[in-house]
Structures are given as C-alpha cells and as structure tokens.
Design brief:
alpha/beta; FAD/NAD(P)-binding domain; D-Amino Acid Oxidase, Chain A, domain 2; 2 domains; nine-stranded mixed β-sheet; eight-stranded mixed β-sheet; 12 helices; 20 strands; 24% strand
Length: 429
Amino acid sequence: MLYENWLHNGSLSIKIVYCKPLKDKINSECLVIGGGIAGLHAALKLVEAGKKVVLLEKRICGGSSSGQSGGFLSPESEEDMSGLMKRYSKDKAKIVYQIPKKGVDLIANNIRKYKFNCDFRIQNTLFISAKKSHNSSIIEEAEAKKSENLPHKILNKKDLMKIHPGKNYQMALTYPGSYGINSFAYCQEMKNLLIKKGVKIYEGSEVQRIKGNTAITHLGSINAKNIIICVDKMKKELHEDFSKKYYHIQTYIAISEPLKDEEIKSLFPKKELMCWNTSWDYIYYRPVEGNRLLVGGSSAMTAYMPEHYYSPKIINKFIEILKENFPKIKNIEFTHYWSGLIDATKDLVPIADYDPKNKSIQYSIGCTGLNWAAYCGDYLARRVVDKKNTEDLTEFLGANRKFFISEGLQKILGKRISFSLSHLRHFLG
C-alpha cells in the first residue's frame, strides 16, 4: 500500500485555488486562524452576518486533520446517548447530544444549499456487536434511544444478515441521520465559497504568536477586533494554558481498489451503510466514490504515541478482520493508507471558550469529529455576531470544566498518561 491521503485524488474535479501567504501588516474586523472544518464554518457564519473576515491557514485549507478524516458524519461520534446519560443528567445529556447532531446538519445543509462536489452520501449508521459479550452495549444504546424517542432499530442476527451479512456478526443497531463525505473536498468547496463571499484567505501563513489582538506570522501580521482560533496541535506560543488541554489519538484509514458490483452487494445487499463495531480497537468502514471501500480504526498500541507511526501493520489488521467477515472480498487489494493524529480533550468533548484574559479572543480545540468542529466554529462565530441570543454551553464546552484527572495531577503524571487514563475511564464507563 502507498502511504498517501487518497482523499486528495477524490478532489481533482474541484477547482482548487491556492491563496498566497500574508506578507503585509493589515487590519480586519474579524480574524479566523485555522482553515479546517471549525475555522471554515466560523468564517462562513461571520461573513454571512456582514462581518469583514480574514482567515489564516498554516498549510492549505483542509490540509491537516479535517482533510484526513474518513468523512463519517454521525451524531454519535465519540459519544452515544447511553454514554451521555451515564455522564450527565437526562436533561443535560439531551443538550450535549444535540451538539454533534447540529454539526452534522450544518455540513449537510451547506452541501445541499451550495451544491458542493464532495462525494456526499446518505449512509445510515450500523453499530455492530463485535462479539456476543458486546450485545449488551447494543441493547443499552437501543434503550437509551427509545427513552428519548430517537429513531432506531435493533437487529437480531437474522435481520442483520439481510442487510449486512458479516460472518461473525451477532446483532446491531441502525439509525438514520448520518452521512459520508470526502472531507478534503468539502474543505476546498468551503474555501471557494468563502472567497466568493469576500473572505480574504491567506494560506502558508502559520501564526507564530499573538500579541494583544495582533496575530503575527513569519511574513506579516493582522490586527483584528475579534479573533477565533481553530487550530490543531496548538503550540504554547498561541496560548500556554490551552495547549495543555488537548492530546491526540492516532487513527488509520485505508482505501480499496474499485470493487465489482457483486462484491459491494456481498457487503451491502440492500443499500450502503456506515458501519462501526463495539470493540475498543474499533473498526469502521463505508463505501466511497468509485465503488471503493474506506476502512479505518484505532489501536491501543499506537493510539497515544506522540508521533505518527507509519507502519501499515495496524490498518492491515482491520482489513484482515473485514475480509474474514466477508470472504467474497478476500482478494481485494487496498491501495492507499494514511494515519492521523486527532486532537482530543480528556473527556472527548471539545473546548470552545473565551481566552480568560481577553474576551475578544476565542478558542476551539479537541474536536474529535467533523460535526463537532463544524458546530464549535459556528458557535464561536455566533457569539461574536449576537452573543445575547447565542446559547451558553460553557458548562459543557468550557475550558475550565472538571475533568477526571485535574491539571495538578496531570503535571505529575504527564500529558500522555493523563489523557490515556481519562479515555480508558471513558470507554470502560
């Protein structure tokens, strides 16, 4: 397999304009730092409200985590309803559940409204029990959804085999409201839209530091009344305290050669689905452009490594599991794979909050899914446009909310151990 982000290939039919770096000292009403999903959505909300907006991106828009994503848009990314109900009261769980759900809607509505070319697919979610001992997780989530009148259907083995006949699958939960996209293509379409709407975008313009309300790059600077910072791998030069509040989780994605129609039918006899399983070393997969299959997952062995682990060993394990469940695709080759370091907080819920010393600056960090990022960018922009009528989610998205491992204990344990222990507690309930 070639180590390369195949999603770029799926964007070749889109006009991709490279925006030159910032080389001057300029001023603007609003500045967005970061050209991923969060930053692009923040800029869109601001410019549609009549604000003058500049966006700075250190590489190209969508060139980091957002453009490496598998493009899964599901309200349950990282946290399902049963998990939320364990963590919060019933009423608060409803509020948090709506955050990624609204993020899905923001992205889907943009695609429909502006006719984006980004391999947009309606793909109902299929949450699959990896083994019999995991069936209780499926039942628990079904009961949580039922209690909140959320659409869903629980499938026994016989019913599951009709729509997704995996050899070792036991039961599953399916529900609507999820979609698949080419995330890199979506970012490029958003960039083109923002340029048309008058946003000034400068790529290759990494912000080295912020002094007051001035962002300083290698070649220029910009002073802005309002600043929204939506970057991953935040350096302490941007904000020392916020840089301590994220770590990353390493995930892997691979893409197959084109499948024959009968091979696709062997996986999805009725209609294509977006699939996840219940194991901690979870595997996820879905059909993408050109009758290809996208497969991804994360491993306990490499999840918290501080740097990229480039070996195909992990993703090959997931491919082998998939082929074992679907023997008709055993001879299919996977042509490309890549890894990504996804930023996450200690409770897997993003931070979207003000700089405690300067309320004209806001930060979005730790968005583990495209939908979370879209919502956080939009939310921070709405607080600039109309704070009075914007919901206050500080209790859930605030930087100083309580975490299982405190900042003090983190200083003793170290960042990597603190985040891995917090996430282990999360997954074990």
